[in-house]
Each structure stands twice: as C-alpha cells, then as structure tokens.
Amino acid sequence: GSIETREVHSAVAFVSARREWLDGKQNERVEVEAQKTESGLVPTHLALGSCHRGGATSGFTVSEFTPAGKLLVPSGSSSKGLHLHCCCYMEPFTILHKASSRKTDKISTGTGKSRTTRRIDLTASLPASTDISDVNAAESNERHYSNMRMEAFEAVWSSTESSIKDVLREANATIFSEIHEWVRDSFDTIVSFGVPNFHEATQPFPVVKDATSKQIFTGLVLTRNIEFVDDLVTFEDLKQHLKSQGCHVANLSSVDFSSKNGVGTCLRSLLGQFVTGSLDTADISMLATWYKEQQNNDNPVVIIIDDMERCCASILSEFIHMLSEWVLKVPAILIMGVATTVDAPRNVLPSNALHRLHARKFTFQSLPEKMNYVVETAFVKQSSEFTISHKTAVFMRNYFVHQNGSVTSFIRALKIACAQHFSTQPLCFILHWFLRDEDNEVPQSHIYGLSQERMLKLAFDLPSWKSTNNQITQLSGETLLDGLTQLKKLHKTWRMVVLCLYEAIKGENVQLLDLMCEALDPKGPFASQFDIGSRVLPSDDSTSQKFHSLEKNKGLINRAIRRVKELPANQLLVLMKAWEKHTVDVPEFHSEVKALVLSLLKLEENGESLNQNKVEMTNTRKQALRGHLNGADKNLRVANEKASNLVDLMVRRYMCPVECVALHEVLCFDCVDQLQAALIGDMRRRIQMDLQDFHAIIRCSCCSKRGSTILPSMPDSSIMYTLAQEHGDVVNVHDWYQSFKSVVLSTHMVSKRGKSRSKQHSPTPKKRKTTSELSQPSEASIQARFCKAIVELQVTGLVRMPNRRRPDYLQRLAFGS
Amino acid sequence: RKAKLFPPVPPLSFLHSFWSDGEQTPESRTFPSAAFCRPAMEINDGEEEEEFEFSRNYFLAKELGGSSKKSGRKISDIDPVDEQELRTAANNLEPKHEREVASLMESYKASYPEWGFMLRTGFGLLMYGFGSKKALIEDFASTSLTEYSVVVINGYVQSINLKQVMVAIAEVWWDQLKAKRRNSPSQAQQPFNSRSIDDLLAFMDGQEADDDKSFVCIIVNNIDGPGLREPESQHLLARIASCTHIRIIASIDHVNAPLLWDKKMVHTQFNWYWYHVPTFAPYVVEGVFFPLILAHSSTAQSAKTAAIVLQSLTPNAQSVFRVLAEYQLSHPDVEGMPIESLYAASRERFLVSSQVTLNSHLTEFKDHELVRTRRNADGQDCVYIPLANDGLQKLLPEINP
C-alpha cells in the first residue's frame, strides 16, 4: 500500500490482539494490522515485545507471531496522519530521551525491555531556507534569555515567598515554644517513672510498671484551619522547631493509619524516619533498640500525627496501646492535630485507648489571622514590588473565601500569577531591577534579550503611558527612569496608606484582603481623583467637597476614617504610635502624626494626674474637676478630629490605586482569566463543551454551525454526544445506533442534493470525499465508527458500559455543560 | 461561549457512578479537589442561568430516564457484523478533519515556551480537553525539554509497576548527575533495584545536585488511566512529583479524574497548573483496552462461538449441555439448575453413568466459560449458562439432538 511521506523516525506498528472466546488457551491469534517504518525495516523484537507485555496484562498471550517484516501495510491504515503510534506504546513506561546539551544526541533506552529511538515530528514542513546555524544561535539565545527571565522570577518570587514563610513561622513562635516547654515537662515526668536498667533495656519486650506510667502525654492541637493542607505546613514548621531543640521528631499522616494495611504501615513509616537502612520488618522493639543506641538519652521522641480525625480509629488506638506499653523504653510524646473540637478524640477513639492518653490542649492561630499576615507581607509590606490588579485581587479573594479556604492555595495562586506575569510581560525584568534597588540606572534590558530601544518602545507603548503622557515627545531612558521612580514612589505611598487604614480598623475583625480590594479599585470612590497617571494632585477644595458626599457610603475605608474619629484616648495613642512608624517616608504626615502623639501623651499625663486626684476628691472641688474633665474631653475630640482629617487627607492624596499609575503594567498582574484557567481546571464542563462547540476549536470549513443540526462531517464522538442529549440517564444502544446511522447516511443525501452548494466552499479533502464517494459506507464501517465513538466517550467518562442488569443500555455520566 | 468562573457542582449521584467500571472507588476519606467545589462567587445573571441549566439538564435526564417509556430494543437487533470484520473496519477508519487537527496541534507550538517556563518554575502541567494528548505532550518534550531527561509513563496500560518506574527514573537522574559532574561522584552507588521506595524518593529529593535547577521530567499519559487509578498509585505518584528534582506533565481525559486527588496532592505535591488543550486526535492507544460494544456483548456472537466449542465436544457432553439449556429455558427465573438435578436428569437419559463423568463434563464446560456455578436460595450449587434466553434458543438447534 501507499505510505505517507511524513517524517517518521520510528517504527509504527499497530498491533491488536484478540482472543477468541471459544478457542480458550489453545489457539489465540494475533493480527498485525499495519506497520511502517522509515526504512521499510521493522524491528520485529519490538513489536513482539510489546505484544507480549500488552498481552500479559490484558488477558491474552501471544503464542504465534508472523515475522513482522513480512507484514503488509494496508492502504488507509490507521497509522496515517498525526496520530502516530509508537511501537512501544504498550509499554508501561519508556524513556523518551536523556538529558543532553546537544540536540541531536538522543539516547533512549527502555529499561532492558525495549529499545527504541523515536521522535514525533509534527511539523510537516519547516521553513527550508533558514540556515541551521542561525536557528541554533537564535535558539541558544532564546534559551539564555529565558534563563535570565527565570532568574528574575526566582529572585522576585523567593523574596516574597520567604518573607511569607517567615511571618507565618513567627506567628506561631509563641505557641511553638509553649509546646516545647510542655514536651520537656512531660519528658521529665516520664523519666521520673524510672529509667530501665541495662538488663531491662536490652530485653525485646516492654518494661511494665504501674498504670500511671503507661500514660502517653498527648498534645491536642486545634489547628483552626479550613483545609488540612495548611496544617501540614504548620506541623512541618513545628517539627523543625522541635528538632532544633533536640527532640527526635517524626511526622505521621492519616494515610499511614489506614485500615487496609494495619498498624504495620505506621510503624514502618515511623521507623523509616529514625532508623536508617532498609527495613524488612517493622517492630516497635527496633525503635527501642534505636533509642537505646542514641548518644544521649535525654531527649524525648515526639510523634506528630497531622490529622487525627482522618485516621482509622482502630489502627490509631492499637498504635496508642503499643506506644503506652513501651513508653518507659521509648519516651514517646504524641502531638495530634484536631480540626474540629477537643471532643474529637472522644468521638474517634475507644475508651480504653482514651485512658492511655494524658491530654493537653493547644490552639494555633486562626485562619483569618494567618491570612492577614500573609496579605500584609505579600502586598503591603513586601520587599518585591510585584502586585496584582483590582480584578485579580477580587478573584483571589473570592477564590479564598468561597472556594478554597486555605492559605497554602492562596500563596500558590499568587505564585501562578507571578509566574504568568513573568512569562507574558516582556518588561517583567524591571521587577528584578526594582528588587536590586538600582534606582539611578536605566534597567539593563539587553541581558534579557531586549535592546534598550525595544524596551523603551515597549514601555512607552503601554496603554497606561500612552493615555497620560502623550504630550511628552522626548522618549529617552531618563523619561522611563523618571516614570519608574514615580511608579515605585506612588506604589509605596499607597501601601503606607493601606497599612495605616488597616491599623485603624484592625480591632474590628476586618480582613486586610477586603480592605486591599477596596483600596485597589481604580474605579472606587477614592480613586476618582487620580486620573490615570496624573501626578498633579487635585486642589483640596474640590475634592473635599466630593469626599464629604461620599463619606456616607459604606466601605471599609470610610469605616476606618469614622473609627479614628471615635477612638478613646489610649487606643488613639497606640494607633498614632503605629502610624508614626509607617509614615516615616512621608515627612509631611510624619510630622503631623508626631505632633498628635505628643499632644495625646500630654493628654494622657493629665488624665493620670486627674485619676490620682479623683481619690482625694471632695465635694467642693467636684465642680472644678468636671470642668477640667470636659476640657480633657474636648482635647481628645480635637485629637480625634485631627487624626481623622489626617487619614482623610492621606487617602485622598496618596492612596493612588496602582492601576491609575503610568507604567503600572510592569509590576501589576492583570490577566484574571489566565490565572483562573490555570488554577481551576474545569474538566467536566470543558470536555463537554469541546464536544459541543468543537467547531470553534477546530475551525473547519465543513461543519460551520447551522443551528443545532447534526452534520455528518462532525467528529463521530461529537455526533454521538449530541445524540445522547436526547436520551435520559440511560441510552438504548440500539436507538442510539440507529440515529447515528441515519446521521452518517445523511451525508449522501446532502451531497446528492446539494452538490452545487458544496462547490462554493473551498474543496477540502473531506468534501471531495463526500461528493465523490456516493456509495454508501458499509454497515461494518458504520458499526466500527459507532463502537469507536463509544470507546472515546468511555475514555472521557461520559458514558459507562452496560452492566449485566441492563445489557442493552449505556449509562450517561454527565449531563449538559 | 464565555468561560465560566467556576465549574458547577456535580450532583451527588456522580460519586456513585464514579468510574466506568464502577468497582474502583476513590478512597473514601479523600476530599474532592478544588475543581469540584462549590462556587459561590460573583455569579452574574448569565452564569446563574448556565448553572441553572446544568442542574435542569441533570434532572431532565433523570426524569426522562424514569418516566418515558423505555425502548426495549436489544443490541442484537442492530444485527452486528462479524467481529473480525468489525475490527478490521475499526482499524481502517478514515480520520475526520485531519488537516484541522494538524493545524490545531501546530498552533499549540506557540505555547511551548510558556509550558517550559511553568514547568521550570516548579508547577506540574495538567493537560485536559477532548482528544488524545499523547503525541502533543511528547512532541513538546522532544522539542523543548531536550536538556532534561524525560520518562514517559503510559497510564492507559492495564498494570504498571511504579517501583520499576521509580528505579528507571532514579537511574536516569543518576546518569544526569554523573554527566553534570565530570569527577566521579563520591559515594559508591547502590543498585537502585534493591533500594526501598523511600530511599529512591529521598534520592530524587536529595540535595546532591550542585545545580538545583536540573530535573527529570515525567510524562504521565492518562494519569487517570486504569493502570494508575488505585489510590496507592496516585499517592505514590504524588510523592514522586513532589520531589525536588522531578517535574511532572500529565494528561487526563476522564471527567471525574480530579476526584482522584485530595487537596494535599493537588496543591502541594502535584502542584497542578491546568492547561486546556483539546486536540481532537482520536484516542487510539487510550482506547485499546476498551471492548467494542458491538463485538463482545452481542448474543448472536456468543451463541455462535459457544456452538463452535460445543461441536468439538462429545455427543454426550453436548446432550448434557442441552439438558441444562432446556432446563434454563423452561425455568427462566431460578438461579440455575442444581447439580443433583442435572445429574439425575442426565442419568435418566443415559448420558452419564456416574457423578465423576458429569463432573468431567462440567469442568470442560467451565473451562470454556460455557457454564458458571452459583448458589441458590436453598444453598444448593447450581449451574447455569451465561447466555440470554434468545441466545440459548439460537444455540439449541446447532447442537446434537
């Protein structure tokens, strides 16, 4: 037959083996349907090998094999076109290629089973005129630049990530040291029950004393997270902390406590973390031996179980029993994560196991608190300038609040955003430049594969620059530098204001992320005066007018401003002291805040003296005192007013959302759709939409959507899927087949009737076929197409094969998209 | 159509009908991953409507299934062609839209640099969308990942020994390390075959590499395939994927595939980055192990093949089979014919002389899957023919009277 002249580097064998029902084990037959190679030679051993392998696993074996070299290639074989089948496709695994610096150097070895070299080439034609060396040079350059971009990304991201990690660890520092203290106390108690003497210690069975010595000290840690993913991070930190204090620590997860494998799994996992070398059997006496062999026996063994409620109760209680028997030899202390309430052990464990536990409760930071730390570090206090647009912030907030609820995933989403920013924004390296703080030099774009002119062009073509600075004609490196410095400054002051607002509203159980979303909004009430890119601050009169009308509006920013007005003296002082720290970079506010702090301090002193006086109060002096108090009140109100005006001014003058600043695109990520697509795969819906709207993806000329008619030129699976929509949750195979057949056969009706119409289209091969091939497709081919389409729907999980109860029906598993 | 912010919630009944074979269910304690959680965010009108449409579709389908008169047509009414012919036809099918599929594949080449970038930043790429993605992913690996070793795991193969795979990966990684450092590595290498899984994981996770950025890339075609569906396999894969020097690219096709993973696996181990890449390439290798519906379950086919087997047996054996078949036809509702009754009936007709002879016949039948045994309500062992009545009726005239 004819072999297509595509570049095929490997043998392509399509081997299907079939077992005949009646022949049983004696006479199985294998058919080799098609086989083709570049050189015409067929690696027989490959085809054989794969048959054997595939056979062994799928229930048939190959006993007889025609020498593959003599096989024919039927014309129109299924190995045509793009879907090439590797001859080793039935291998469970193969090595595609090994790492190499040179591109041509492709070694490939299957681990002793099959050896093949192959490359699938999808390009039918490369531009033939391009010089290979040029291509290579361009490629290596491209690689170099992408490495540079990668480095820039890593620098920016790692600065953010490490600060987030630090802040989370710090947040837990107190509770960690509390746990450590308790571990030490518990260990001392265990030791006080008696240390086994040498004789006892070498015996392969536990030491038994009285009942109290059998108790295991157990820390129940309330993790207060929504997702156990976050717990894992916390427990890992705890493990590191305890380890640094000298304890022997092991982490066990609920997977180790599954009823399927019994207590052996968790013991093995436990031993694996302490004892080096391979373990054939897992026995707790080995743990005792290991502990005895330790240099100094004055450190406890801490076992952390991250999610106690997900463990299999019987295995866990067995484990507890075992530990308690051995506790004198292996001074084990349990730390168990509890997601719900302290009652959880009582609900999970049987009472005899409960009796062995001597529990104490610890509580970690709650999720909202942690989230505030993360947001504060990542967006408000961060060292890198990378930030996200308002839309992205809202999306991420919703993703956290409604969908995911885990800090880990939030950080992951941020990382995806950051990575996408670096892969899509050509000017992203400026972030790296920001990070290195080389403010007085124009960013060196050439090391990222961008000439300076190109960088300037890109920068001045950014919409945010164009919309505001079109009057500037002199476009030089200095202009860019100015623009970037301005951008950085405005971003910094924005963060300052957000931080001050957050300080003001902190006590009211407010999420910083919400506040941030509001402050980022370029269309929000406070952003209206920042026309994109304008650095001319609006005059006070006009904006304050606007401002007061807005003040009635709800919103966290307004709430913060109102709150400042009503704060009592001592809280106001604390707030002002915090502000004093934050506003260091803006002298204008810094001095005013300082003055406020001073006046408040004075007020406080007065107040204290008043309080002292109160004790010796006499009737005659009451009058005067009241007057004094009123005066203090008044002073406080003045201070409140002043602070409130101050924050008001800050918001108006400096809280410029990043999206209102020229050149913000270099540091601000704004592709929500892209982020969402990467973060949340929409498997179920998209597969069905692919089948329904395949035309939008494939863009063929033959099946342009004409209403909801099913065209025979559509992919068979699409036809079948669309037809199945008319059925209920089960589809009768016979009916389905009949409607499929009628659709397929309608081709010939259409082509007979509408020959003229089909001529109007560009004559695709498909069209030609339908018009020329007037003979009906054979019954066998229709049935084969039907079967194949069902197989494809099965692979995608849209239908299920008939079961014994309903042999003539297929079950639909997905309904509409 | 506009992409939706969030996928809708699958009705609970999907969880029962999880996989196509209905036997392997995910570990009960794993939670559905992010992709299936409740969207409660900014649903604008259009989306709300879509949401509504989705649930309506579901209930409509259920209602339709329950109320409307079910068609009683049988598969055999289609009159399937001979299995041989069907398979030949199936392997010679004319692919549709070849050119468009090719240009679609070609269009993904533009995304290769981005994929490579994401892979190197530490994400695992998860490819989904209709069509076989094997060729696409492997082409990506052969063109863009030449500086890294690439190992391909084929999840559509029925059984995969992951330990073997890990040994292979470790060997490849070892070679890569050796090539990087010209001077011979310090410690003597223990053969990977004899190492434990934890050791191998530690090796791949280790800090031995001077160059932290190099890695081995694993491609898992159909990570939701039958060979990898067990929770243990997925846990192990997740642990492999979370190693420092491993990156993973996987493809999924089954709509319920995300249920294989809990959040720990999705967010911290696999670290999935989703890509929607429909290829519309036919599922050729992925579908190899699926039976053709018209080839296997057709009664005509089974009756025919059963007849061929029977004809090769002794006349007495055929007659015993006939006794059983006639009994089954006249007692359609019982579990089968008690062996004692079969013995009595056969003995009456002088077909067997002893229980031993009958048993030898029965063994032969069983070997060819002509009969099966089960126990009836009274606790008696019964034999029955695993054929529908119409199949039996077709079969009877073919055997010796």
TrEMBL record, chain A:
<dbReference type="InterPro" id="IPR020795">
    <property type="entry name" value="ORC3"/>
</dbReference>
<dbReference type="GO" id="GO:0006270">
    <property type="term" value="P:DNA replication initiation"/>
</dbReference>
<dbReference type="InterPro" id="IPR045667">
    <property type="entry name" value="ORC3_N"/>
</dbReference>
<dbReference type="GO" id="GO:0005664">
    <property type="term" value="C:nuclear origin of replication recognition complex"/>
</dbReference>
<comment type="similarity">
    <text>Belongs to the ORC3 family.</text>
</comment>
<protein>
    <recommendedName>
        <fullName>Origin recognition complex subunit 3</fullName>
    </recommendedName>
</protein>
<feature type="domain" description="Origin recognition complex subunit 3 N-terminal">
    <location>
        <begin position="138"/>
        <end position="428"/>
    </location>
</feature>
<keyword id="KW-0238">DNA-binding</keyword>
<keyword id="KW-0539">Nucleus</keyword>
<dbReference type="GO" id="GO:0005656">
    <property type="term" value="C:nuclear pre-replicative complex"/>
</dbReference>
<dbReference type="GO" id="GO:0003688">
    <property type="term" value="F:DNA replication origin binding"/>
</dbReference>
<feature type="domain" description="Origin recognition complex subunit 3 winged helix C-terminal">
    <location>
        <begin position="684"/>
        <end position="815"/>
    </location>
</feature>
<dbReference type="InterPro" id="IPR027417">
    <property type="entry name" value="P-loop_NTPase"/>
</dbReference>
<keyword id="KW-0235">DNA replication</keyword>
<dbReference type="GO" id="GO:0031261">
    <property type="term" value="C:DNA replication preinitiation complex"/>
</dbReference>
<feature type="region of interest" description="Disordered">
    <location>
        <begin position="751"/>
        <end position="778"/>
    </location>
</feature>
<dbReference type="Pfam" id="PF18137">
    <property type="entry name" value="WHD_ORC"/>
</dbReference>
<dbReference type="InterPro" id="IPR040855">
    <property type="entry name" value="ORC_WH_C"/>
</dbReference>
<feature type="compositionally biased region" description="Basic residues">
    <location>
        <begin position="751"/>
        <end position="769"/>
    </location>
</feature>
<dbReference type="Pfam" id="PF07034">
    <property type="entry name" value="ORC3_N"/>
</dbReference>
UniProtKB/TrEMBL annotation, chain B:
<comment type="similarity">
    <text>Belongs to the ORC2 family.</text>
</comment>
<dbReference type="InterPro" id="IPR056773">
    <property type="entry name" value="WHD_ORC2"/>
</dbReference>
<feature type="domain" description="Origin recognition complex subunit 2 winged-helix">
    <location>
        <begin position="331"/>
        <end position="390"/>
    </location>
</feature>
<keyword id="KW-0235">DNA replication</keyword>
<dbReference type="Pfam" id="PF04084">
    <property type="entry name" value="RecA-like_ORC2"/>
</dbReference>
<dbReference type="GO" id="GO:0006260">
    <property type="term" value="P:DNA replication"/>
</dbReference>
<comment type="subunit">
    <text>Component of the origin recognition complex (ORC).</text>
</comment>
<dbReference type="GO" id="GO:0003688">
    <property type="term" value="F:DNA replication origin binding"/>
</dbReference>
<keyword id="KW-0539">Nucleus</keyword>
<dbReference type="Pfam" id="PF24882">
    <property type="entry name" value="WHD_ORC2"/>
</dbReference>
<dbReference type="InterPro" id="IPR007220">
    <property type="entry name" value="ORC2"/>
</dbReference>
<dbReference type="GO" id="GO:0005664">
    <property type="term" value="C:nuclear origin of replication recognition complex"/>
</dbReference>
<feature type="domain" description="Origin recognition complex subunit 2 RecA-like">
    <location>
        <begin position="101"/>
        <end position="277"/>
    </location>
</feature>
<dbReference type="InterPro" id="IPR056772">
    <property type="entry name" value="RecA-like_ORC2"/>
</dbReference>
<protein>
    <recommendedName>
        <fullName>Origin recognition complex subunit 2</fullName>
    </recommendedName>
</protein>
<comment type="function">
    <text>Component of the origin recognition complex (ORC) that binds origins of replication. DNA-binding is ATP-dependent. ORC is required to assemble the pre-replication complex necessary to initiate DNA replication.</text>
</comment>
